[in-house]
Design goal:
Layout lengths: L11 H8 L6 E4 L2 E3 L7 H12 L1 E8 L7 H8 L4 E7 L16 E9 L3 E6 L3 E7 H9 L9 E10 L5 H23 L6 H14 L4 H26 L4 H22 L3 H24 L4
Antiparallel strand pairs: 1-2, 3-8, 4-5, 4-8, 5-6, 6-7
Helix pairs in contact: 1-2, 1-7, 6-9, 7-8, 8-9
């Protein structure tokens, strides 16, 4: 959305893939299963994607104990739309179910603001919604989003500084994917588990009845559906360049969908069986991406 403001038409699915964030799986955060690069974050991925695609973008952030930079934001909005995030969805009162989303991260495009509220375009299906500045402050401070560094982060005024062709962008992204997988295993060491082992461990917890209701909600309302969409984004990214990986990612998306279907009907034993299949295909994807470094 931010890039479209300067006439650049790049699909969100493509940008999602080149962030490199949604690769792997881990139990790094309070033993909760996440299907992403536990060493990175969406905000780091966004900055990487801008550089990979050939853009310089002004990125700003504050310390968690600093005041919300409303004057600075207002000045930047006079020049360009602004990408805000992460925001804590629990404070986004225009979302009908915001009360159940506390601590979930989100990114929106800010368009303009006045003395009392801010006009946003929310890609979750809420264009031109308004949020009071009173609610913006805790949402944007994002204290409950543990992986985020600092507060009040935003990106503005993108400028294209290079024109990498499709081959160069692809190679840059693949190098990032390889590095992400390697770094996950180095950081995990002997005590933390990632990838296939992390997913199998969670399947065992489900069967043993040691998974909490809170994590069931995390998987049902967030991780499974988002995993499916992100897997399809990667499948599209690999299509025509590595059809084997494209097919693996599509199959992964199908398994995520089955996990969600079973969890939604409270068949958690069935979901555990699907997680086992997800674990094995995750290993196949990791092996194929690491092998791409020698191709």
């Amino acid at each position: 959305m931010l890039l479209s403001a300067i006439g650049e038409d790049i699909s969100p699915a493509f940008i999602e893939a080149v962030t490199g964030f949604a690769l792997g799986a881990s139990l790094e955060r309070n033993d909760i299963l996440f299907f992403d690069n536990c060493l990175s974050s969406p905000e780091k991925g966004i900055s990487i994607a801008f550089k990979t695609l050939g853009f310089d973008v002004i990125e700003k952030a504050s310390k968690i104990d600093e005041r919300i930079p409303l004057d600075e934001l207002r000045q930047d909005l006079a020049r360009s739309p602004v990408l805000l995030g992460p925001l804590d969805m629990g404070y986004l009162t225009y979302l009908p179910n915001h009360r159940f989303l506390g601590g979930c991260d989100h990114y929106v495009l800010a368009l303009e603001m006045n003395e009392t509220d801010i006009l946003l375009h929310d890609p979750a299906g809420y264009p031109f919604v308004r949020l009071s500045l009173e609610q913006l402050e805790p949402a944007w401070r994002a204290e409950r989003i543990a992986w985020s560094c600092g507060a009040y982060r935003y990106w503005t005024s993108p400028v294209r500084t290079s024109n990498p062709d499709a081959d160069e962008i692809y190679q840059r992204a693949v190098r990032l994917f390889i590095s992400a997988y390697k770094e996950q295993h180095v950081a995990a060491g002997e005590h933390n588990i990632v990838g296939k082992r992390a997913i199998l461990s969670k399947a065992d917890q489900i069967r043993n009845g040691t998974i909490t209701d809170g994590e069931k909600g995390h998987l049902l309302h967030f991780a499974f559906s988002l995993g499916a969409r992100r897997a399809l984004d990667f499948s599209s990214f690999f299509q025509g360049r590595d059809d084997g990986l494209a097919e693996l990612k599509e199959e992964q998306a199908r398994l995520f969908g089955q996990c969600h279907t079973l969890a939604a009907s409270d068949d958690w034993v069935g979901a555990a069986d699907m997680l086992e299949q997800l674990a094995h295909i995750e290993q196949e994807i990791e092996t194929a991406i690491l092998a791409a470094g020698g191709s």
